[in-house]
């Protein structure tokens, strides 16, 4: 019997309504001792008001990374000695932890150079950054030692690393990239070993195809189209200004985050960059009758890239390598994601267009349709790789934690010396066949068997929760933990 007696629940704004429901279910079902963790005093007030003292043992603020990074460093040598002990304990460098941090690690967003700057990104020194991460690790080590959790939910990389070292079950929620299905993944890389286990148990599956992009993608796409219109930009700019004034008057910690003028400049830059991108892009129809590999660009900075693939997050280098190793006559079709428009370095698109075998596609083309038409898909961690894998199309991936990496028609590039061979194999006339299509259908069936439907969760209204979303996710979570997650250690960051 799995132990749900002491649960750490890390507040996640997008899943706020769901997490409130889960906390109540754990208390009712298992009389769990529940400890909530959030980022600010304002969030602590929210959680304390939403959950009574009978449900929650404690509500804690984890702001040690930024609070400490804001302070001057008194003894640099002591900071570095502490950092080396922390690195030895975690088994990775502080710098690798920083890869996924939008503020202290913004330099790692190589193709997101114009993401809005913040006070912390500009004012924190290297030693302050190191000191901040050390303080956060020490905070979590003490929490684990003092409270001895048996389950950690929706935590980040540090919580996942410590849980793994101590043999504590860890789960966080992730989209399954199909409709509104989600799943409980086992580590900070969103790995779920039960998908492969389910795949091996499925001998045949109905040829269910990914007919439409998943719900959140379409919701955000429609919002982007509205936001880049003149009225949308003015409304968005006014909202940002009013929000910062409100935060400052209320003394909220959020007021010390991004510079408001940086955020407003980003809003207007999106329209400018989208127009520039449109001038050099081509419709998908221009590739009719021509073989091509599809590379969908990732947003930077973003969890889906830096957090899920800290080993490889170099998009420009990736595109250059693909262009270099493609056989003669094969084009590389690159498509921007709307969320990244306005964040790219100056001349980023022009540099891509300089590759003679690269075509920049219209960013409003549906990625799913491009996958349908492509001979193969190249990606790091993108949804395009998932969609191609389901279709039985070859995937060349530079990310080593994708759930579809175990499939035979997926080629994982651990050494760029293998890339040319992998591309030749992926582009062979018989690369898509009955076996790959059958395996793709089995993979989708395995994904759905490891998932639950969260169509009742509001994508833009985080307080919205309808239907049986809590019950479905709670039952799936309990089943996942009971199935023995502790035996899956995952790749190390």
The first-to-last residue Cα distance is 30 Å
Ranges with pLDDT <50 over ≥5 residues?
485-493
Q: Please bin the fraction of helical residues.
A: 40-55%
The backbone outline, from C-alpha atoms, is: globular
Q: Give a count of the beta strands, DSSP E runs of length 2 or more.
A: 13
- Provide a count of the helices: 20
The whole-number mean of residue pLDDT values reads 92
Biggest sheet, strands in spatial order?
Answer: 3-2-1-4-5-6-13
CATH class of the largest domain: Alpha Beta
What does the main sheet amount to?
7 strands, mixed
Question: In the CATH classification, which architecture of the largest domain applies?
Answer: 3-Layer(aba) Sandwich
Return the structural class. alpha/beta
Gyration radius from CA atoms, angstroms: 23 Å
Would you give the CATH topology of the largest domain?
Answer: Rossmann fold
> What count of structural domains?
3
Strand content: 5-15%
Descriptive notes:
- This protein has 493 residues and is an alpha/beta fold.
- It folds into three domains: 1-175 and 454-493, 3-Layer(aba) Sandwich (Rossmann fold); 214-280, no CATH class; 286-451, Glycogen Phosphorylase B (Rossmann fold).
- Helices cover 46% and strands 11% of the residues.
- The protein is built from 20 helices and 13 strands.
- The strands form two sheets. A seven-stranded mixed sheet has the order 3-2-1-4-5-6-13, with helices on both faces. A six-stranded parallel sheet has the order 9-8-7-10-11-12, with helices on both faces.
- Strand 10, helix 17 and strand 11 (395-397) form a beta-alpha-beta unit.
- The longest helix has 22 residues, at 126-147.
- Mean pLDDT is 92; it is low at 485-493.
């Amino acid at each position: 019997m799995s132990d749900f007696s002491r649960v750490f629940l890390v507040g996640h704004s997008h899943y706020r309504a769901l997490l409130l429901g889960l906390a109540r279910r754990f208390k009712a079902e298992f009389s769990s001792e529940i400890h909530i963790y959030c980022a600010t005093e304002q969030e602590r007030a929210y959680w304390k008001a939403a959950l009574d003292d009978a449900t929650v043992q404690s509500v804690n603020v984890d702001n040690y990374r930024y609070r400490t990074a804001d302070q001057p460093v008194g003894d640099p040598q002591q900071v570095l000695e502490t950092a080396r002990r922390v690195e030895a304990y975690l088994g990775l460098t502080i710098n690798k932890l920083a890869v996924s941090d939008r503020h202290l690690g913004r330099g790692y967003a190589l193709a997101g150079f114009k993401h809005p700057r913040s006070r912390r990104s500009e004012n924190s020194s290297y030693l302050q950054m190191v000191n901040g991460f050390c303080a956060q690790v020490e905070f979590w080590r003490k929490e684990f030692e003092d409270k001895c959790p048996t389950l950690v939910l929706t935590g980040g990389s540090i919580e996942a690393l410590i849980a793994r070292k101590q043999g504590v079950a860890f789960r966080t929620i992730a989209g399954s990239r199909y409709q509104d299905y989600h799943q409980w993944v086992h580590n900070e890389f969103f790995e779920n070993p039960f998908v492969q286990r389910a795949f091996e148990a499925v001998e045949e599956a109905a040829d269910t195809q990914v007919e439409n992009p998943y719900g959140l993608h379409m919701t955000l796409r429609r919002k982007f189209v509205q936001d880049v219109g003149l009225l949308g930009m003015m409304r968005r700019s006014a909202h940002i200004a009013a929000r910062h004034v409100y935060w400052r008057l209320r003394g909220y910690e959020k007021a010390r985050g991004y510079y408001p003028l940086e955020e407003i400049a980003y809003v207007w830059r999106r329209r400018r960059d989208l127009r520039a991108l449109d001038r050099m892009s081509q419709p998908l129809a221009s590739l009719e009758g021509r073989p091509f590999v599809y590379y969908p660009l990732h947003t930077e900075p973003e969890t889906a890239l830096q957090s899920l693939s800290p080993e490889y997050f170099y998009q420009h280098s990736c595109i250059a390598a693909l262009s270099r190793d493609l056989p003669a006559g094969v084009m590389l079709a690159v498509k921007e994601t709307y969320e990244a428009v306005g964040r790219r370095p100056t001349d980023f698109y022009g540099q891509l267009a300089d590759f003679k075998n690269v075509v920049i596609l219209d960013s409003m083309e549906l990625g799913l349709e491009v996958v349908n038409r492509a001979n193969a898909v190249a990606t790091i961690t993108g949804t395009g790789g998932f969609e191609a894998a389901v279709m039985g199309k070859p995937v060349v991936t530079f990310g080593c934690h994708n759930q579809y990496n175990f499939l035979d028609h997926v080629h994982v590039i651990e050494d760029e010396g293998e890339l040319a061979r992998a591309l030749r194999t992926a582009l062979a006339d018989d690369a898509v066949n009955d076996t790959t299509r059958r395996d793709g259908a089995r993979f989708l069936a395995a994904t759905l068997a490891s998932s639950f439907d969260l169509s009742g969760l509001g994508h833009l209204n985080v307080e919205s929760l309808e239907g049986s979303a809590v019950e479905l996710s709670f039952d799936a979570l309990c089943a996942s933990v009971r199935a023995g997650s502790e035996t899956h250690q995952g790749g190390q960051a």
